What does this fold into?
Amino acid sequence: MTTPTTSRLAARPRAAALATLAALLLVGGTAACRDILTEDPKTVIVPENLYVDLNGFEAGLNGLYALVRRERYGQNETNNIFATAYSIGVDNGFGNYLSPPERVFSEFGTVMNSQNSFITDTWSWLYQTVNAANMIVDRAENPDVRWSPEDKARVVGEARLIRAWAYRHLTYLWGDVPLVLHEQTGDNIRTDFDRAPRAEVRKQMEEDLLFAEANLPATSSNPGKVTKAVAQHYLAELYLATNEPAKAEQKASAVINSGTYRLITARYGVRASQPGVPFMDQFYDGNANRSQGNTEALWVLQYAENVPGGGGNIMRRSWVTRYETNPGMQVSPENGGRGIGRLAFTRYAILLYDPTDQRGGQYAIRRFYLYNNPATLPAGKKLGDTLFTVFTKETVSNRLWPSTRKWDWTSVIDPTGASQWGDQPYLRLAETYLLLAEAQFKQGKFAEAAASINALRARAGAPLITAAQVTLDAILDERSRELLTEEQRRYTLLRTGTWYDRTKKYNPLAAPVITLRDTLLPIPQSVIDANLTKPMPQNPGY
It folds into this structure.
């Protein structure tokens, strides 16, 4: 038997390939897979000879996790369309460099249409993930699989959690969507899908997450695995979306009071001896995982350079500006590596921070550079002089807009490379505190909500708030301060019914063009066309 670490890395290539080929999409390209799935080749990995024992299911899970990690890899490692869908076109994020995917969530209007390839690709990625999860859940029922009941329950729990994770994306982006709970193969292709009401899909998400909560371990030696706390965190958010705040409070409290996790309040790890603040230590390469001292991380995405199955992401490329195109500047590790600045946070987001708040200070947000390129120095400047960022007004292609330092990363092999491979926090206990605060607020427990928020403000060195200051806007502002560039902001605003009003108020680029239609994306036309035997309704306004 391979160890968890060996399985995580070595099995990824075959499992990811299997997930890509056999986790069929609901948008075309499925009929050709029938022969692949029904043949019995001896030297090719297919579901029939993979899902026969625990190692095979672990390989399948690794392929499923690879699909999850694509959220930060993007469509083809050149644009971050999947993260773009929830990061910009909101109150605290805008498109700073308008390549085609950023245009969708910056210009809206006619660009936001049912034939847009980026919208179609996002749908396809998520249903590919659903089908890969369904493949594991269905094939786990084979009585001939060689494993223990405990291993089976844990594997199915991981798959069902990730299925709920995918439907979470789908319901926030499209509302009512087809609810598919079994593997789609060449033998059972359907052309009569219905769009299940969002409430029905969320009910299934609840069942999946409760199963995961009951069967996943509290911790795992494999740092990329989901655990009980991840299920509880997502349940807390789901119960807020379904207006069940007491249940949300219970699940968030279970994570916070478990004794397994705690907020980072002291320096630790690879840069502990260097200037910095506790809040930022958890984002540094070498500090992200629990085994490296990160007590705050609930789920960490695993990346590895030049390792089979390791994979990369483009978070730095997306959020760090093109600072090196300014005279006197060149790409350097101390400036975060090579950026392209497709995504940026709004002026509103920058101005939210109190002067003492670590989350908005110089170690978290880059507000100046030091000239470092002698070949292009402006007249009258010398190496080491300061070049300040400028954020008086949101404009497109601003090379001097402030940027986050959360995703700084530079390869020792290729310092100017586009990709990055450091492990990254995906869910943090800090967000669980904010879900708890929202649940308490919705029940009128304002003092308790203030205490939950103050746990984060105290850690960050920001002034504490009182119960009288707790409002929904205050909670949303705090989420922006804490989770800037991490949060799936569009989902938060849609859940709280504030996307349209807050985006109109705080995002001057999106304000003139968004309409209420844009609260949901259009169903891809290719999906509607493929549903040959039953009409599939389009979202209103498209």
Residues 1-38 have pLDDT under 50 and may be disordered. The beta strands are 93-95, 297-301, 343-345, 365-366, 368-370, 386-388, 403-404, 424-428.
